[in-house]
Known about the structure:
17 helices; set domain protein methyltransferase, domain 2; about 450 residues; four-stranded antiparallel sheet; 2 domains; alpha+beta; set domain protein methyltransferase, domain 1; four-stranded mixed sheet
Amino acid sequence: MRQASLPVENLPAWAHFNNVQLFDTAIEAHIFTDEGIDKGGGLRAKAHHEEVEPLVAVPLDLVLSKEQVAQCAKTDRQLKELVEATASLFQTPRTAVLLFLVYQMTINSPDNQDPDLKFRSPFADYVQCLPKEILLPTFYTPEERELLSGTTLADALGQKLLSLEREFDRLKETTEAVPWCQRVWWDEQSGCLDLGDWKLADALYRSRAMELPRGAGVGMVPVVDMANHAADDRYNARFEVDDAAGTFLLVVRDAKSIDDSDEITIMYGAGGACEMAFSYGFIEEHAISAREMFLSLSIPADDPLRLAKVRYAQEAPGVRIYIDESNQVRWDSTFVWWACVNQEDGLDFRVEKTVDGETELKACWKEADLSADALQSTLSQDELRDIFALRAVVMIQQRVEDQGMQLAASDEDYERTLPDEHVVRRSVYETIGRLRRLELDLLTRAYETLETEVR
């Protein structure tokens, strides 16, 4: 659907009329790096601030979370109908907020001519101030996606796009019988909602949602979500909640101060290069390592226990490669142990009936019952533990080598590609290039580390 937009310059007025307090803090439409690169909007200090001083205070009823969406539905009949119809999607915090975002987009859209769909809340104008073009991988062009070949982001992006399509199909399936949804979203002539709108809502949520303090879950916090990211040793602000005042606070980080005209920054997360690119569309400019990556693992198709292993293990089928605090390469995988032992070693499965007549898959190791989370510890106590450990390391090393070969083989295609304003955007090209270099370095280090373990 066509999106209605308001410039970021309108956000200070929105904040004022919705009781968001800015303590000598400015909302700016453009923040530039030392190299002159425009990072987009952000927050900047207008005076000196000492540690723990407040920078922004947002009323808790403006924190956009699943709970807040449920609260809004109590006074908005159309939203209530949407929430009730999409109960399966509303179960998770992310998709609950996505439903709310596409609802607000619809209210704002010039394509919405339905007189019953005009209920405006503060969130409608807030959504208008959010960007409509986001350089997240889900909006990469086909040519940009080709440049991801060999990176872990390539597989993650493919799975994400399929997941978004399934969610959108589920949204249509569950709301076609809701009268206003049928008129506004799905009518063959005037329906305006498409997969691109769902992707935009997902991109806004992934790039702006934050972990709320004291286990309050995940949510989007207007104005605070304008703050840009800085690395662990560089960010200067953090969050807290003032229950007495009923506000979500952005305050100066402990043992830090912020000078007049300094940018106010937060840390989005401590994930690896792939995760940063996937969720935020960039990689830290000072990053010297990919930090971590997740490589898929598969059980050979000729393994007679393959299907039973996958079903019973209930683990992500892969291995996490990461750099620890001492800058050493480590790996972590529960799934690999299921992949590297077989029936001849002592692993077996059987199907049993439960008391209510259902069937249940059971595993055993040398005829003793085996729980899904006990295989690794069981193997470590077996007399053949060294053989099992070697198999696991060899399997992971082979997977690391395969990934490295894929990445190296596609380097030539990347190098001969020239950035273009419409086909391969320069900022995307540079992000992909950094990801490729960082992941190849981590794969090389991982292979060398695993080689010492094999010996």
